[in-house]
Design brief:
mainly alpha, 2 strands, elongated, binds zinc ion
């Protein structure tokens, strides 16, 4: 896999592991990516992080989580195709 997108993901992962206060506070929730306050429930950050109380805002959901899910979907599809060939 190549370049700008992959760098982008690495940067995000780094942010996630360096933000520690996200998990403790459940009342005033902040986005685990951009640290903005979340209005309402926020969005699940699966498949990136499988923790209940880590959430992200709508913008990051749209810009990060959805592309990531699409990427996961297409890569698993590709793997299945490769399996058939072998
Ligand atoms: Zn955000």
């Amino acid at each position: 896999m190549n370049t700008p997108f992959f760098d982008f993901i690495k940067k995000i992962l780094y942010n996630i592991y360096t933000i520690k206060n996200v998990e403790r506070k459940t009342n005033d929730m902040k986005c685990c990516f951009c640290n903005k306050e979340i209005n309402g429930m926020g969005n699940s950050v699966r498949p990136l992080i499988r923790k209940e109380n880590v959430r992200c805002c709508d913008e990051c959901n749209r810009d990060i989580i959805i592309p990531l899910r699409m990427l996961e979907y297409f890569s698993s599809k590709e793997n299945k195709m490769n399996d058939k060939e072998n």
